[in-house]
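Notebook p. 47: complex prediction with S-adenosylmethionine.
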Amino acid sequence: MNRGDAEGRDLPGARRPGGPSRRQALDGIARELAAAGIDSARVEAERLLSLAVGISRADLQLSLESELSAGDARTLADAVRRRLAGEPLQHIEGSVEFRDLVLAADRRAFVPRPETEQLLDRVLEWARERQQALRARAEARPVDAEGVRVVSRPAERAYVDAALDVGTGSGAIALTLADEHVASRIVALDRSHQALEQATENRRGVGQTEASVEFRLVEGTLWGAVGEGERFDLIVSNPPYVSTTEMERLPPEVRHDPSEALVAGEDGLDLIREILAGAWDHLRPGGALFLEIGEGQGERVEELLRETGDWARTAIQKDLAGRVRFAFAERR
Ligand code: SAM
Ligand code: GLN
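Predicted complex, structure tokens below:
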């Protein structure tokens, strides 16, 4: 059924002898998605229509008065049906934009979210500040016997040496650390074989990773899959943090993510507890841990941090919408 067609014909404006215009289809779908309780119905409708027609959203805006072909109408109807059945838009599109990367999105791994982009903003800010501090210290040092001042890393090099991404899923965090030259050696760990398959594919899309970064995808469970003596300057994770009871209340889209990517025991803190149990020992002095956490978990995570190390600095931080979302700890 072409829902856009059926709805579009009721609208005022240009009626045409053939099928509906793209604009009519768009208006119809936007209303249908909104009626189904989808928040950004208009934007999603535009994306579904662009996908069906095979053009960018910008080009779509310039061609809204064109007729929607019968073939495109069928593709569109199928995409809308999937969306109304609760499938996330990114699975239908088959990809998701994450910072500067375009990553595959399907049932194999958790679809990366905007909150995690914000977590990476914090990581980058920390890495830059740390580099500046190291530079300033090097510059303050008196010149050596040959009159040469030893300055820290050149600007084009990575900010830190080694980083670990716990529960890499699609590879979103680890690949960003590579792409944005945050670390020169990166371990991306996940216990899900399927997720790592997707991460491997995504890695091929990040060209410069190959050349300048030692990038290792590891299948296994924390901390067993990390060498006992292995130390990092940076540990970053968006772990599963949803509790078993919360899981039942999540919207249908979220249930298309693998449940092992979301659920972490009765209080949602199972993996966070494990990360914290080993983070101190696996960080180098001056290294830092960055975690994405659930909105209601700030106080508990702060307590756990106090119990697991004599940290130089810790912080529980909010996202741009003012919700508690992140935890930070820097090792002495
Ligand atoms: N880092 C990705 C992102 O931010 O989009 C994916 C995060 S997803 C919420 C959590 C990931 O942790 C899943 O891919 C899951 O398979 C993995 N995971 C869960 N428990 C784990 C464990 N004990 N050891 C390793 N990986 C684990
Ligand atoms: N932010 C996710 C959601 O509820 C949960 C992510 C996670 O458990 N890491 O959609």
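Notes: The pocket of S-adenosylmethionine (ligand 1) is lined by residues 109-110, 112, 116, 167-170, 172-173, 189-192, 195, 221-222, 238-240, 260-261, 271 (CB under 6 Å). The beta strands are 95-98, 101-104, 160-166, 183-190, 214-219, 232-237, 283-292, 313-318, 324-330.
Next step: compare against the earlier run before touching the bench.
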